[in-house]
Here is the input.
Amino acid sequence: MFYSEGGSRSAGITVVDVENAWGYGLNMELDDEFSPNGRLNVDVKKRRLRPDVSVNRGAVTATTDLDPWIIGAAVRYGF
Here is the structure.
């Protein structure tokens, strides 16, 4: 689901419509206990989406490539 579709910030663009699309994702995660109470978590995700986009009610149409890498890390301490 895409939010803030519109073109009010660009001259000549009045409507931007981004369609919902199916994609796929890959995920790799590592959990490590480095002490009796401490844990480290690292994860890397790759997403691939190809939504269709139309500008000014179809004056311009395209398929976009949205391929973000999402990287996260956490240190946890348990009591």
Observations:
- The first strand starts at residue 16 and ends at 18.
- The chain has a mean pLDDT of 88.
- The beta strands are 16-18, 24-33, 38-48, 52-55, 60-63, 69-77.
